[in-house]
Design goal:
This protein is 34% helix and 14% strand. By secondary structure, the chain is of the alpha/beta class. The strands form three sheets. The chain has a seven-stranded mixed beta sheet with strand order 2-8-7-6-5-3-4, with helices on both faces. The chain has a three-stranded antiparallel beta sheet with strand order 9-10-12, with helices on one face. Strand 5, helix 5 (152-161) and strand 6 form a beta-alpha-beta unit.
Length: 363
């Protein structure tokens, strides 16, 4: 009998919501339905597809602040690159625990990049000084590895005080907590909020000017050329609308499951703030743990040792290093990503297996 896989890697990606799949299917159909039509075509089928794209755009905008526009992209990495590379940036400030998409785009596009340190709780000090001449401040809303929620409203205010724009990577927070206040640009990704992979968005505040990033047919108001996928847009929109409707319910569900997981793994140490965190993320450590061995033994539990984007490098997480962990402690840390469709039985069984596997290593 095939054993059930317990999925606890919702920071890497979330399952496609059934409602999102249902919204996508008509736009994948053949000639009889014409759902496959190019939304940039002027005929009836194309206009119908574009009308649906605009409905999806409005649904996604419902997760974001008023007074801005949503530009579709292939994902958050593209959105972040467009935000950073399409505005003049002589000097960029980003937190020490930003995603590699932010760090590497800043290194590629700015004259100077400097890090804003975080404390042992994984939080940026919103009152820390910003270097004169800073053009862009980039701080994520919820950290993808340790789940800490940053004081983005105050950070955006501080950025504006020195004349800088504020970019927020809201990939882990969009559809889960209130949208980041004060941001000038916000990057989000569909597959982190139970939508399809291959589509994301950059929200740009009214009055903020950005340059075209991908050149071609001048789609997306001339800012991002390329044919949009009606199916991906429909799935993204449906997932966003569902996330907005379920936000409080999902939060309460995850709070309960996180408390259950912590009670079973009570001897493990939590990485990052106890309070300023997204409950769906439990980043835990125990001294002496061989995480690679544990992952090879627990084939029926999907969890991670850190960011999926940085897996396979063999290097300690830069996020865990930034909060003060040495290599030994960082390499003994795991990330459990709890999601909307995770059950109490899932958490209980997975945590018991994880703790038993650690004990079998003598830790």
């Amino acid at each position: 009998m095939k054993r059930k896989l317990i999925y606890l890697d919702n920071q890497a990606t979330t399952p496609l919501a059934p409602e999102a799949l249902e919204a996508m299917l008509p736009w994948l159909s053949g000639p009889e339905g014409m759902g496959f039509a190019n939304p940039h075509s002027a005929h009836k089928a194309g206009r119908a597809a574009m009308a649906m794209v605009e409905v999806a755009r409005d649904q996604i905008a419902g997760l974001l602040p008023p007074g801005g526009r949503v530009i579709f992209t292939s994902g958050a990495t593209e959105a972040i690159n467009q935000a950073i590379l399409s505005v003049p940036c002589g000097r960029v400030a980003c937190s020490a625990i930003e995603h590699s998409a932010v760090i590497n785009a800043a290194l590629a596009g700015a004259g100077e990049v400097y890090e804003m340190p975080v404390g042992s709780d994984g939080l940026v000090d919103p009152e820390a000084a910003l270097a004169p001449g800073t053009d862009l401040v980039a701080v994520m809303q919820v950290n993808n590895e340790i789940g800490t929620i940053q004081p983005v409203a105050r950070l955006a205010e501080r950025a504006h005080q020195v004349g800088a724009l504020f970019l927020c990577d809201a990939v882990q927070g969009a559809g889960k907590i209130a949208s980041p206040e004060g941001a000038d640009m916000i990057a989000i990704s569909a597959h982190k909020l139970y939508g399809p992979k291959g589509i994301g968005a950059l929200w740009v505040r009214d009055g903020v000017t950005i340059a075209p990033f991908i050149h071609g047919g001048a789609q997306e108001g001339g800012l991002r050329s390329g044919t949009l996928s009606p199916a991906l847009c429909a799935g993204f929109g449906a997932a966003a609308a569902l996330a907005k409707a379920r936000m409080e319910l999902d939060f309460q569900h995850l709070q309960g499951l996180a408390a259950l997981g912590r009670s079973i793994l009570s001897r493990w140490v939590l990485n990052g703030s106890e309070t300023a965190r997204w409950p769906g993320n439990l980043n835990l450590r125990i001294d002496g743990l061989d995480v690679v061995r544990m992952m090879s033994e627990l084939r029926d539990v999907a969890f991670s040792a850190g960011s999926a984007c940085g897996s396979g490098t063999g290097k300690p997480s830069h996020v865990l290093k930034a909060i003060g962990l040495d290599d030994f402690a960082a390499k003994g840390s795991i990330r459990l990503g709890i999601g909307r469709y995770t059950t109490r039985d899932d958490v209980e069984e997975a945590c018991r297996q994880i703790d038993a596997a650690a004990r079998s290593q003598g830790v």
